[in-house]
Write a structure and sequence with these properties.
382 residues; alpha/beta; Aspartate Aminotransferase, domain 2; Aspartate Aminotransferase, domain 1; 2 domains; 7-stranded mixed β-sheet; 3-stranded antiparallel β-sheet; 13 strands; globular; binds pyridoxal-5'-phosphate
Length: 382
Protein backbone atom coordinates (compact mmCIF):
# COMPACT_ATOMS: atom_id res chain seq x y z
CA UNK A 1 0.00 0.00 0.00
CA UNK A 2 1.28 3.48 -0.89
CA UNK A 3 0.15 6.24 1.45
CA UNK A 4 1.22 9.80 0.67
CA UNK A 5 1.73 12.28 3.52
CA UNK A 6 -1.14 14.37 2.19
CA UNK A 7 -3.85 14.45 -0.48
CA UNK A 8 -5.96 17.58 -1.00
CA UNK A 9 -9.69 16.96 -0.51
CA UNK A 10 -11.18 18.56 -3.61
CA UNK A 11 -14.24 17.72 -5.68
CA UNK A 12 -16.46 19.06 -8.46
CA UNK A 13 -17.54 21.99 -6.29
CA UNK A 14 -14.05 23.50 -6.37
CA UNK A 15 -13.63 22.64 -10.05
CA UNK A 16 -16.96 24.23 -11.02
CA UNK A 17 -16.37 27.35 -8.97
CA UNK A 18 -12.96 27.89 -10.57
CA UNK A 19 -14.51 27.35 -14.01
CA UNK A 20 -17.13 29.96 -13.16
CA UNK A 21 -14.44 32.50 -12.28
CA UNK A 22 -12.47 31.74 -15.44
CA UNK A 23 -15.59 32.18 -17.56
CA UNK A 24 -16.48 35.45 -15.81
CA UNK A 25 -13.53 37.31 -17.31
CA UNK A 26 -12.43 38.66 -13.87
CA UNK A 27 -9.70 36.44 -12.48
CA UNK A 28 -7.69 38.55 -10.04
CA UNK A 29 -8.91 39.87 -6.68
CA UNK A 30 -12.55 40.90 -6.81
CA UNK A 31 -16.01 39.80 -5.74
CA UNK A 32 -15.07 36.17 -4.98
CA UNK A 33 -12.28 37.27 -2.66
CA UNK A 34 -14.60 39.65 -0.79
CA UNK A 35 -17.16 36.85 -0.48
CA UNK A 36 -14.46 34.51 0.87
CA UNK A 37 -13.41 37.15 3.42
CA UNK A 38 -17.01 37.67 4.54
CA UNK A 39 -17.59 33.95 4.94
CA UNK A 40 -14.30 33.48 6.77
CA UNK A 41 -15.07 36.28 9.23
CA UNK A 42 -18.45 34.78 9.95
CA UNK A 43 -16.99 31.25 10.30
CA UNK A 44 -14.37 32.32 12.86
CA UNK A 45 -16.41 35.10 14.45
CA UNK A 46 -13.68 37.67 13.75
CA UNK A 47 -14.75 41.25 13.00
CA UNK A 48 -12.46 41.54 9.97
CA UNK A 49 -10.86 39.01 7.63
CA UNK A 50 -8.37 40.09 4.96
CA UNK A 51 -7.32 37.55 2.32
CA UNK A 52 -3.71 37.42 1.12
CA UNK A 53 -1.58 35.06 -0.97
CA UNK A 54 0.03 33.14 1.95
CA UNK A 55 0.27 32.94 5.71
CA UNK A 56 3.82 34.26 5.39
CA UNK A 57 2.42 37.42 3.74
CA UNK A 58 -0.20 37.67 6.50
CA UNK A 59 2.50 37.44 9.20
CA UNK A 60 4.60 40.04 7.37
CA UNK A 61 1.67 42.46 7.07
CA UNK A 62 0.73 41.86 10.71
CA UNK A 63 4.20 42.99 11.80
CA UNK A 64 4.01 45.96 9.43
CA UNK A 65 0.61 46.88 10.86
CA UNK A 66 2.04 47.08 14.39
CA UNK A 67 4.89 49.28 13.05
CA UNK A 68 7.69 46.87 13.95
CA UNK A 69 11.00 48.77 13.95
CA UNK A 70 14.66 47.73 13.56
CA UNK A 71 15.93 46.49 16.92
CA UNK A 72 12.47 45.60 18.25
CA UNK A 73 12.24 42.06 19.61
CA UNK A 74 9.59 39.48 18.75
CA UNK A 75 9.30 36.26 20.75
CA UNK A 76 8.64 33.05 18.81
CA UNK A 77 8.81 29.33 19.66
CA UNK A 78 11.76 27.19 18.52
CA UNK A 79 9.43 24.55 17.08
CA UNK A 80 7.77 26.22 14.11
CA UNK A 81 8.13 26.68 10.38
CA UNK A 82 10.86 29.08 9.26
CA UNK A 83 8.25 31.61 8.02
CA UNK A 84 7.45 32.60 11.63
CA UNK A 85 11.09 33.65 12.01
CA UNK A 86 11.90 35.11 8.60
CA UNK A 87 9.18 37.78 8.55
CA UNK A 88 10.74 39.40 11.64
CA UNK A 89 14.11 39.66 9.90
CA UNK A 90 12.48 41.62 7.02
CA UNK A 91 12.32 44.60 9.44
CA UNK A 92 15.83 44.38 10.88
CA UNK A 93 14.01 43.39 14.06
CA UNK A 94 15.25 40.63 16.38
CA UNK A 95 13.54 37.22 16.57
CA UNK A 96 13.89 35.92 20.14
CA UNK A 97 13.52 32.16 20.26
CA UNK A 98 11.75 30.59 23.26
CA UNK A 99 11.48 26.91 24.20
CA UNK A 100 8.23 24.94 23.89
CA UNK A 101 6.33 22.62 26.22
CA UNK A 102 7.73 19.09 26.15
CA UNK A 103 4.36 17.36 25.70
CA UNK A 104 2.33 19.74 23.52
CA UNK A 105 5.17 21.37 21.52
CA UNK A 106 3.46 24.74 22.14
CA UNK A 107 5.12 27.98 23.27
CA UNK A 108 6.16 27.53 26.89
CA UNK A 109 4.66 30.35 28.94
CA UNK A 110 7.62 30.48 31.37
CA UNK A 111 10.07 30.67 28.50
CA UNK A 112 7.98 33.47 26.94
CA UNK A 113 8.05 35.35 30.24
CA UNK A 114 11.80 34.85 30.70
CA UNK A 115 12.56 36.23 27.24
CA UNK A 116 10.65 39.48 27.66
CA UNK A 117 12.84 42.62 27.70
CA UNK A 118 12.00 46.33 27.39
CA UNK A 119 12.50 45.87 23.63
CA UNK A 120 9.83 43.15 23.25
CA UNK A 121 7.21 44.45 20.84
CA UNK A 122 5.29 41.28 20.00
CA UNK A 123 4.92 37.56 20.59
CA UNK A 124 3.88 35.04 17.93
CA UNK A 125 2.34 31.95 19.56
CA UNK A 126 2.17 29.10 17.05
CA UNK A 127 -0.83 26.79 17.39
CA UNK A 128 1.27 23.75 16.51
CA UNK A 129 -0.54 20.89 14.78
CA UNK A 130 -3.87 22.65 15.32
CA UNK A 131 -3.95 22.85 19.12
CA UNK A 132 -4.23 26.42 20.46
CA UNK A 133 -1.47 27.63 22.78
CA UNK A 134 -2.32 28.45 26.38
CA UNK A 135 -3.80 31.81 25.39
CA UNK A 136 -5.13 33.06 28.76
CA UNK A 137 -1.70 33.42 30.40
CA UNK A 138 -0.12 34.54 27.12
CA UNK A 139 -2.73 37.30 26.66
CA UNK A 140 -2.50 38.26 30.34
CA UNK A 141 1.28 38.66 30.24
CA UNK A 142 1.17 40.45 26.87
CA UNK A 143 -1.49 42.92 28.01
CA UNK A 144 0.37 43.71 31.23
CA UNK A 145 3.63 44.34 29.33
CA UNK A 146 2.16 46.12 26.30
CA UNK A 147 3.14 43.37 23.88
CA UNK A 148 1.20 42.67 20.68
CA UNK A 149 -0.09 39.14 20.21
CA UNK A 150 0.05 37.88 16.63
CA UNK A 151 -1.13 34.29 16.39
CA UNK A 152 0.42 31.96 13.84
CA UNK A 153 -2.67 29.89 13.08
CA UNK A 154 -1.27 28.28 9.92
CA UNK A 155 -2.34 24.90 11.34
CA UNK A 156 -5.45 25.76 13.28
CA UNK A 157 -8.64 26.19 11.33
CA UNK A 158 -10.93 25.44 13.04
CA UNK A 159 -9.64 25.40 16.62
CA UNK A 160 -11.00 26.60 19.95
CA UNK A 161 -9.59 27.72 23.28
CA UNK A 162 -12.01 27.71 26.23
CA UNK A 163 -14.92 28.15 23.83
CA UNK A 164 -13.28 30.92 21.80
CA UNK A 165 -12.42 30.36 18.15
CA UNK A 166 -8.84 30.87 17.04
CA UNK A 167 -9.03 34.03 14.98
CA UNK A 168 -10.78 36.01 17.72
CA UNK A 169 -8.31 35.83 20.61
CA UNK A 170 -5.09 37.76 19.91
CA UNK A 171 -4.65 41.16 18.25
CA UNK A 172 -4.07 39.61 14.83
CA UNK A 173 -4.34 36.01 13.64
CA UNK A 174 -2.73 34.58 10.49
CA UNK A 175 -4.03 31.48 8.69
CA UNK A 176 -2.55 29.40 5.86
CA UNK A 177 -4.30 27.79 2.90
CA UNK A 178 -1.16 26.10 1.60
CA UNK A 179 -1.72 22.80 -0.25
CA UNK A 180 -1.45 20.58 2.84
CA UNK A 181 -3.42 22.75 5.25
CA UNK A 182 -6.85 22.04 6.77
CA UNK A 183 -8.51 24.09 4.06
CA UNK A 184 -6.54 24.92 0.94
CA UNK A 185 -6.53 27.31 -1.99
CA UNK A 186 -3.24 25.90 -3.34
CA UNK A 187 -1.40 28.88 -1.88
CA UNK A 188 -3.17 31.46 0.24
CA UNK A 189 -3.66 33.03 3.64
CA UNK A 190 -6.03 35.10 5.75
CA UNK A 191 -5.50 37.68 8.46
CA UNK A 192 -8.20 38.27 11.05
CA UNK A 193 -8.47 41.07 13.59
CA UNK A 194 -11.03 42.96 15.61
CA UNK A 195 -9.11 46.20 15.04
CA UNK A 196 -10.65 48.17 12.12
CA UNK A 197 -7.56 50.38 11.63
CA UNK A 198 -5.33 47.32 11.29
CA UNK A 199 -7.78 45.69 8.87
CA UNK A 200 -7.91 48.84 6.72
CA UNK A 201 -4.16 49.23 6.64
CA UNK A 202 -3.56 45.57 5.77
CA UNK A 203 -6.12 45.83 2.96
CA UNK A 204 -4.10 48.70 1.47
CA UNK A 205 -0.70 47.10 2.09
CA UNK A 206 -1.63 43.83 0.37
CA UNK A 207 -1.99 45.70 -2.93
CA UNK A 208 0.92 48.16 -3.25
CA UNK A 209 -0.45 50.49 -0.58
CA UNK A 210 -2.93 51.97 -3.03
CA UNK A 211 -6.02 53.56 -1.61
CA UNK A 212 -8.50 51.40 -3.49
CA UNK A 213 -8.09 47.98 -5.01
CA UNK A 214 -8.04 47.04 -8.65
CA UNK A 215 -11.63 45.88 -8.42
CA UNK A 216 -12.81 49.38 -7.60
CA UNK A 217 -10.58 50.93 -10.23
CA UNK A 218 -11.64 48.72 -13.09
CA UNK A 219 -15.26 47.97 -12.27
CA UNK A 220 -18.04 50.04 -13.76
CA UNK A 221 -18.65 53.02 -11.56
CA UNK A 222 -15.01 52.92 -10.38
CA UNK A 223 -12.41 55.55 -11.08
CA UNK A 224 -8.83 55.42 -12.39
CA UNK A 225 -7.72 57.79 -9.61
CA UNK A 226 -6.02 56.47 -6.51
CA UNK A 227 -3.52 57.57 -3.90
CA UNK A 228 -0.58 55.74 -2.31
CA UNK A 229 -0.08 56.62 1.33
CA UNK A 230 2.79 54.20 1.98
CA UNK A 231 4.74 51.56 0.06
CA UNK A 232 2.90 48.26 0.11
CA UNK A 233 3.34 44.76 -1.29
CA UNK A 234 1.92 42.50 -3.98
CA UNK A 235 0.26 40.06 -1.58
CA UNK A 236 -3.33 39.93 -2.86
CA UNK A 237 -4.97 36.57 -3.66
CA UNK A 238 -6.85 35.96 -6.92
CA UNK A 239 -10.53 35.21 -7.38
CA UNK A 240 -9.44 31.83 -8.74
CA UNK A 241 -7.92 30.83 -5.39
CA UNK A 242 -10.70 32.52 -3.41
CA UNK A 243 -13.31 30.51 -5.32
CA UNK A 244 -11.56 27.34 -4.11
CA UNK A 245 -11.44 28.80 -0.59
CA UNK A 246 -15.19 29.45 -0.52
CA UNK A 247 -15.89 25.80 -1.35
CA UNK A 248 -13.27 24.48 1.08
CA UNK A 249 -14.65 26.62 3.90
CA UNK A 250 -18.14 25.20 3.32
CA UNK A 251 -16.84 21.71 4.12
CA UNK A 252 -14.36 22.75 6.82
CA UNK A 253 -16.42 21.23 9.64
CA UNK A 254 -16.96 18.00 7.73
CA UNK A 255 -13.22 17.71 6.95
CA UNK A 256 -12.42 18.51 10.57
CA UNK A 257 -14.67 15.68 11.73
CA UNK A 258 -12.83 13.26 9.46
CA UNK A 259 -9.44 14.33 10.87
CA UNK A 260 -10.81 14.03 14.42
CA UNK A 261 -11.97 10.49 13.73
CA UNK A 262 -8.57 9.51 12.38
CA UNK A 263 -6.84 11.09 15.40
CA UNK A 264 -9.03 9.22 17.84
CA UNK A 265 -8.42 5.95 15.98
CA UNK A 266 -4.66 6.51 16.12
CA UNK A 267 -4.95 7.51 19.80
CA UNK A 268 -6.65 4.27 20.71
CA UNK A 269 -4.07 2.22 18.75
CA UNK A 270 -1.07 3.92 20.37
CA UNK A 271 -2.37 4.83 23.83
CA UNK A 272 -1.32 1.71 25.68
CA UNK A 273 2.00 1.16 23.94
CA UNK A 274 5.17 1.91 25.88
CA UNK A 275 7.18 2.56 22.71
CA UNK A 276 5.31 5.72 21.69
CA UNK A 277 3.94 8.81 23.33
CA UNK A 278 0.74 10.23 21.90
CA UNK A 279 0.14 13.93 21.50
CA UNK A 280 -2.13 15.34 24.24
CA UNK A 281 -4.82 17.94 23.63
CA UNK A 282 -5.35 19.93 26.83
CA UNK A 283 -8.70 20.41 28.53
CA UNK A 284 -10.71 23.30 27.12
CA UNK A 285 -8.96 23.14 23.76
CA UNK A 286 -10.19 21.76 20.47
CA UNK A 287 -7.57 20.98 17.85
CA UNK A 288 -8.02 21.16 14.10
CA UNK A 289 -5.76 18.08 13.90
CA UNK A 290 -3.78 19.44 10.97
CA UNK A 291 -0.98 17.12 12.09
CA UNK A 292 -0.81 13.89 14.08
CA UNK A 293 2.54 14.13 15.87
CA UNK A 294 3.78 10.91 17.37
CA UNK A 295 6.84 10.74 19.64
CA UNK A 296 8.70 7.45 19.52
CA UNK A 297 10.40 6.49 22.79
CA UNK A 298 13.96 6.21 21.53
CA UNK A 299 15.16 5.15 24.99
CA UNK A 300 13.19 1.90 24.59
CA UNK A 301 14.23 1.35 20.96
CA UNK A 302 17.32 0.35 19.00
CA UNK A 303 16.46 2.73 16.14
CA UNK A 304 16.46 6.50 15.85
CA UNK A 305 13.57 8.66 14.67
CA UNK A 306 15.30 9.03 11.27
CA UNK A 307 15.57 5.25 10.90
CA UNK A 308 11.92 4.86 11.87
CA UNK A 309 10.99 7.24 9.03
CA UNK A 310 13.08 5.17 6.59
CA UNK A 311 11.35 1.97 7.73
CA UNK A 312 7.92 3.58 7.23
CA UNK A 313 8.98 4.72 3.77
CA UNK A 314 10.07 1.18 2.89
CA UNK A 315 6.51 0.08 3.77
CA UNK A 316 5.03 2.74 1.45
CA UNK A 317 4.11 5.32 4.10
CA UNK A 318 5.26 8.92 3.77
CA UNK A 319 5.78 10.80 7.01
CA UNK A 320 7.30 14.13 7.99
CA UNK A 321 8.91 15.94 10.90
CA UNK A 322 7.40 19.08 12.45
CA UNK A 323 9.73 20.80 12.84
CA UNK A 324 13.50 21.07 12.65
CA UNK A 325 14.01 23.54 15.56
CA UNK A 326 14.85 26.99 14.22
CA UNK A 327 18.25 27.30 15.94
CA UNK A 328 19.51 24.21 14.06
CA UNK A 329 19.44 25.99 10.67
CA UNK A 330 22.60 27.46 9.08
CA UNK A 331 21.02 30.92 9.10
CA UNK A 332 21.29 30.80 12.92
CA UNK A 333 25.10 30.41 12.86
CA UNK A 334 26.60 33.09 15.07
CA UNK A 335 23.25 33.87 16.72
CA UNK A 336 24.45 32.43 20.04
CA UNK A 337 21.55 29.96 20.28
CA UNK A 338 22.68 26.47 21.28
CA UNK A 339 20.64 23.24 21.29
CA UNK A 340 21.42 22.76 24.99
CA UNK A 341 19.45 25.93 25.77
CA UNK A 342 16.29 24.29 24.35
CA UNK A 343 15.95 20.98 26.20
CA UNK A 344 12.28 20.47 25.33
CA UNK A 345 12.68 21.29 21.63
CA UNK A 346 15.65 18.92 21.45
CA UNK A 347 13.67 16.18 23.20
CA UNK A 348 10.84 16.59 20.70
CA UNK A 349 13.11 16.82 17.66
CA UNK A 350 14.82 13.50 18.39
CA UNK A 351 11.47 11.70 18.72
CA UNK A 352 8.76 13.39 16.65
CA UNK A 353 7.29 11.95 13.46
CA UNK A 354 4.09 13.19 11.83
CA UNK A 355 2.03 10.40 10.34
CA UNK A 356 -0.64 10.85 7.64
CA UNK A 357 -3.92 12.45 8.74
CA UNK A 358 -6.28 13.98 6.20
CA UNK A 359 -9.87 13.71 5.00
CA UNK A 360 -10.13 10.97 2.45
CA UNK A 361 -7.63 8.71 4.25
CA UNK A 362 -9.81 5.63 4.56
CA UNK A 363 -10.13 3.17 7.46
CA UNK A 364 -7.95 0.57 5.75
CA UNK A 365 -5.20 3.12 5.23
CA UNK A 366 -5.43 4.38 8.82
CA UNK A 367 -5.20 0.79 10.09
CA UNK A 368 -2.23 0.14 7.82
CA UNK A 369 -0.37 3.23 9.12
CA UNK A 370 -1.07 2.32 12.76
CA UNK A 371 -0.21 -1.38 12.35
CA UNK A 372 2.95 -0.67 10.37
CA UNK A 373 4.12 1.86 12.97
CA UNK A 374 3.53 -0.61 15.80
CA UNK A 375 5.21 -3.48 13.91
CA UNK A 376 8.34 -1.39 13.30
CA UNK A 377 8.46 -0.30 16.93
CA UNK A 378 8.01 -3.89 18.13
CA UNK A 379 10.74 -5.11 15.76
CA UNK A 380 13.24 -2.63 17.20
CA UNK A 381 12.21 -2.85 20.83
CA UNK A 382 15.20 -2.96 23.23
C1 LIG B 1 3.58 27.23 11.58
C2 LIG B 1 3.57 27.80 10.19
N1 LIG B 1 3.59 29.12 10.02
C3 LIG B 1 3.57 29.69 8.80
C4 LIG B 1 3.55 28.91 7.66
C5 LIG B 1 3.58 29.59 6.32
O1 LIG B 1 2.41 29.35 5.59
P1 LIG B 1 2.34 29.70 4.03
O2 LIG B 1 2.98 28.57 3.29
O3 LIG B 1 0.88 29.82 3.75
O4 LIG B 1 3.06 30.98 3.84
C6 LIG B 1 3.52 27.52 7.78
C7 LIG B 1 3.50 26.67 6.57
O5 LIG B 1 3.72 25.51 6.57
C8 LIG B 1 3.54 26.94 9.06
O6 LIG B 1 3.56 25.60 9.23
Amino acid sequence: MIIPFHRAFLDDNEINSVAEVLKSGWITMGEKTFEFEKNFASYTGASHAVAVNSCTSALHLALKAIDLQPGDEVIIPAITFIATWEVITYFGAVPVVADVEKETHLLDVDSFLKNITPKTKAVIPVHYSGQPCDMDPIMGIARSKNIWVIEDAAHSLPAYYNGRAVGTIGDITCFSFYATKTITTGEGGMLTTDNPQIADRVKRLRLHGISRDAWNRYSSGGSWKYDVEEAGYKYNPTDISSAIGIEQLKKSNEMNKMREEIASKYNSCFAKNDLVEIYPVREGRISSWHLYPLKIKIENLTISRDMFIEEMKAQGISTSVHFIPLYRFSCFKGSGYLPKDFPNSEFIFSREVSIPIYPGLNNKEVDYVAETSLNILEKYKK
